Amino acid sequence: MSGLVWLDGRIGPPAEARIDPGDRGFLLGDGIFETMRVVNGHPPLIELHLDRLAEGARLLRLSPPHRRELCQAITETIAANRLRDGALRLTLTRGPGPRGLLPPEETQETVLIATFPSTPTLPAVNLHISRQIRHGDTILSRVKTLNYLPSILARMEAQDAGADDALLLNQAGRLACASAATLVALRGDRLVTPPLSDGALPGIGRRRLLASGLCIEQEIARDLPDVRAAWLLNALSLRVVRSVGHRQFSPDRDWTARIRQCAHPA
């Protein structure tokens, strides 16, 4: 985290930002978040991110601030940090509450917005198949919640195996996604990505690829049959997959450029 942060209507240094010790996001992971690219001082896909935030809030019965207020807060935070290119994270929790699982009848949600500088282009990745499971039949697979323990454990497993990242399977043993990215694969001359019903997160870049007709949803077995190239895609990066276990893949520069142009517009 760098520069100034926006917390519940006030902008200041991170060291002065204080979250209530009873905040359910801190204690129970009761919240959601969105990470956005910032290009030339503006998140180009902000409306899609706020749509997903609103849908996640609806599913989890959270009450986010009005969209106009969020847009204004995002604009103010980017301006306060004089950020041209980088990333922004918006975190929404249910706010403080009493001890126990049930939230209070009246909640005061916590909103935190932080910015981050640009990161260098990331190299190709070697992937490990994780023991962690994505359950496609639960709403939690459709929401970016604050509880990322399965992904954290999957990434640690990958590190132990000498890999860069991990792929997670669903309960049927098919590929769902990576620890923090959408899996996109090239079969013949067609891009495919696992369906939401297989546990894939509804990523913004994924959504744009599907809407453009460049990609279709298709089940992908763990051994990636007939796949000749693959990528990991999220809001901030597109990474070429070099290998999954002992299976090697060849990079495809043309498809890499086409995916990036569609998923990461300026």
From TrEMBL:
<dbReference type="InterPro" id="IPR050571">
    <property type="entry name" value="Class-IV_PLP-Dep_Aminotrnsfr"/>
</dbReference>
<dbReference type="InterPro" id="IPR043132">
    <property type="entry name" value="BCAT-like_C"/>
</dbReference>
<comment type="similarity">
    <text>Belongs to the class-IV pyridoxal-phosphate-dependent aminotransferase family.</text>
</comment>
<dbReference type="GO" id="GO:0008153">
    <property type="term" value="P:4-aminobenzoate biosynthetic process"/>
</dbReference>
<dbReference type="InterPro" id="IPR043131">
    <property type="entry name" value="BCAT-like_N"/>
</dbReference>
<dbReference type="InterPro" id="IPR001544">
    <property type="entry name" value="Aminotrans_IV"/>
</dbReference>
<protein>
    <recommendedName>
        <fullName>Probable branched-chain-amino-acid aminotransferase</fullName>
    </recommendedName>
</protein>
<dbReference type="GO" id="GO:0008696">
    <property type="term" value="F:4-amino-4-deoxychorismate lyase activity"/>
</dbReference>
<dbReference type="InterPro" id="IPR036038">
    <property type="entry name" value="Aminotransferase-like"/>
</dbReference>
<dbReference type="Pfam" id="PF01063">
    <property type="entry name" value="Aminotran_4"/>
</dbReference>
<dbReference type="GO" id="GO:0005829">
    <property type="term" value="C:cytosol"/>
</dbReference>
